[in-house]
Structures are given as structure tokens and as C-alpha cells.
TrEMBL record:
Residue spans crossing the bilayer: 28-49, 85-114, 120-138
One GO CC term on file: membrane
Species assigned in the record: Amycolatopsis coloradensis
Membrane topology value: Multi-pass membrane protein
Protein name: Integral membrane bound transporter domain-containing protein
Amino acid sequence: MNARNRWTSPFAWLGRVFRVPGEERRSVLQTAKAAAAAVIAWIVATSVLQLPQPFLAPYAAVFLVQATVYRSVRGWAQQVGAVTGGVLLAAGAGQLIPSVTVALGLVVFVGLLIGSWRGFGDSGVWVGITGMLLISYGNATEPVLLADRLLETALGAAIGVVLNAVVLPPLHGERLKEATSRLASAIGDVLEETAALVRGSEPPEAADLLHERLRDVRSLVAEAEEAIGWTREGRYLNLRRRRETGEGQLVNLISLWPPLAQLIDAVSEAAQSDQPFRHPGEYARGVVGELLEALAEVARSGDPDKLDHSRGLVEEIDHLLVTPTDEVTTSIGLGAMALPARRLVQRLDHPDSSEA
């Protein structure tokens, strides 16, 4: 079965390219744009400008078709700056150092140091590499060839940037949808498992498993934050710039993480404690469990009826906390659970406040 999956997975991936406007389709589109940019840069450099050995033109064009238009524009400045630095470094070494071996070592050493400046980003390594190529090819003492290298790089990079910005510039809205779906489902599952632990239908050892699931949720929160970052960056300088629907919903789900972690800590401590006064009585546990189950549905679907029901259950918990009954007055555990549970309801009830 595993062997069959290995053979069929490429076809499944290709099928998603045509069926789903998601990551697979964007990858194919960006790859096609990179190939087209390389061909156009080569044609312009060889047939129009008639530059000798214009290998830097298609290279720069390919690497400037980035995941966002903003990264393409920023990469253009970094790439041109790095290559310019390498060319100038090679020119200086070629004029002042007669030994090619010594010049090569010095250019690589100094170029890599200069390229480590964070302003060059990932392109910084090309300060030293460009200088090394020019020294080793024997072009460092020929000003015309040095100027050609600069022109090739600027040309190829510009073609890559323009093509990426004009031809279906990339957006990342589907990341929001996927991250929202995964995070909402995970939060709902954790809330239901927490409700079962509160009701006492799970053994106390289940608290350890619940903490493991909580770490999974934290990982999905990090993924969601990354998805929002990609989506917002994708709108910078983008001709198709638009505000993706669902961003506010995902921000709201992310905001549930702190009270959710506090709630699970409180439930786990109460479930594992040997001191009876820390664990709420049976009726109170039933109310908290019902609240968490309702919140699980709200997190998954935004059900307004379940949200109204959650508000009523929070009010009932508040009433239990101030009611002088033998079951509740000595319960520290109920108060510890009530605060994060109330915060979960508030954040689901007022999503705009969490986004701000």
C-alpha cells in the first residue's frame, strides 16, 4: 500500500493543481514564471544587447521570481547590490594584486565578510562568489566585461521582478483557510477532551495526554501566525492586492491560546490533586463540561446559538461561585477554571477586540 502511495502521490499532487486553487497551483505557476523569466532574460541579453557570456542574466531572473512581489523587489535591490560589491571587489583586487591565487583568496574572504551584512539578506554570499568567478575567469582587469556583469545582473533581476509583479502576482489566501480549518478543529477537539476530564469520565492520567495535545495546538498557532504573515506580505506592492476574508477569524482563534492553556493547567491540577477541596463538585463539573463542549462547537463553526448558551453557562458558574453551598465554597478548582473559561467566551463573543 505504501509503495502504491509513492507511485500515485505525484499524480494526486498534479490533480490538485487543476482542482484546487492552492499551494500546488501556485508552485506550478511560479515555476513557469521563473522559466519564462530566464528565457526572456537570455534572449534580451544575447540577441538584443549582444552581451558575451551573459550567464548572470537568466540566473538573476530565476531567483527573483519570489514567493511575494515584495520579496522580489527587495531581492532585486539585494541581488544587484551584492553583485556590484563583488564586481568592485574583483576590480580592485585585479588591479592591485598580481597573483591570481592571492587575489582569489582575498576576494572570497573579504566578499563573504561584506556579504554577511544583513542588508544583503540571502544574496550576501554572492559578493564573494561573484568576485571569485570574475577573478578565476580572468575578467577582473577588463572594465568592459565587469560592466557587462553588472548589466546582466540588473537586467535579469528586473525581468524576474516585473514578470512576478505583472503576471498573476502571488497571493497566499489559501494559507489562511487551511490554517483556520486546522486550528479550529484542534481547539474544538482539545476543549471536548478537557470537558471529558472535567466531568470525570477520563482517568487523571489523561491530563498528561491533554498537555501533549495542547502542544499540538501551540504548533498550529505558530503555523497560523506564519500564514497571516505570508498573507499580509503578499499584499505589499501587489497589483491583485486584496484583504483576505477569514484573517480576522484566524486572529481570533490565535487569541484563544493563552486562556486555553490556563484552563488546561487548572483542569489538570484539579484532576491530579489528592486534596478534595481543589476539585469542584459533580454538579459544578457538569456545568463546566457543558460550557467547554459548547465552546468547542463555537470554535469550529461559530454557532451563535452555542455562543448564547455559553454566556448563560458562564453566568451559572458565577452564581455557583458566590452561592454558599457545601459543594462549592471550598472549591479552589472551580474558580481557577472559571476565569480562563470566561475569557474564552469573551474572545469568541468579541472577535474584533482580539484582532486589535
